[in-house]
Amino acid sequence: MKQIETVEIEDTIYEETYTAHIQKNGSTWIGWIPEVPDVKCLESTQEELLQTLEKELHRALVAEDEAWDKEIEEDIKAGRLEHLSEKALENYKAGRYYQINDLNKLLEK
After folding, report:
1. What domains sit in the chain, N to C, each tagged with a CATH number?
2. What's the CA angle centered on 72, arms 80 and 64, to 5 degrees?
3. Is there a contact between 33 and 51 (Cβ–Cβ < 8 Å)?
4. Residue 25: strand pairing partners
5. CA-only gyration radius of the chain, Å
6. Cα separation of the two ends of the chain
7. How far apart (Å, rounded) are the C-alpha atoms in residues 27 and 29?
8. How many Cβ atoms sit within 10 Å of the Cβ of residue 33?
9. Bridge-partner residues for 10, per DSSP?
10. Fewer Cβ atoms within 10 Å of its own Cβ: the N or the C terminal residue of the chain?
């Protein structure tokens, strides 16, 4: 088994870069992305491995995104976020809010 190499893989949809770990193991290549534990692949060439890693990374990110959306929808339907909207309305009525442009200026400091 050869030494583990690292390769940057960019997901253009989510505009993030991940570090893939790849390694030649006999006649095959194995690879994984530590930041996304579901992404582990095995291919016969390094090129195929990198392509598969990229596809599997995107698949895992989409699945994670869809699960997050489903959880938020369930939380909204169950009323678990009501306290946040009530707090926001209370702050708005009390004058404790910023216009978006003012908030952006504060964040830039």
Report:
1. 5-78 (3.30.160), 80-109 (no CATH)
2. 145
3. no
4. 28
5. 22
6. 51
7. 7
8. 21
9. 17
10. C
In angstroms, the CA 79 to CA 25 distance is 51
- What number of residues does the chain have? 109
Q: What is the pTM for the complete model shown?
A: 0.72
Q: What is the pLDDT of residues 1-48, one digit of tens each?
A: 789 999 999 988 889 999 999 999 999 999 999 999 999 999 999 999
The pair of structure tokens assigned to 48 is 């195929």
What mean pLDDT do residues 76-100 have? 87
Rounded CA-CA distance 48/60 in Å is 18
Map residue 53 onto helix, strand or coil. helix
Distance CA 5, CA 23 (A): 6
By CB neighbour count within 10 A (0-12 exposed, 13-18 middle, 19+ buried), where does 101 fall? Answer: exposed
32 φ, ψ (degrees, to nearest 5): -155, 160
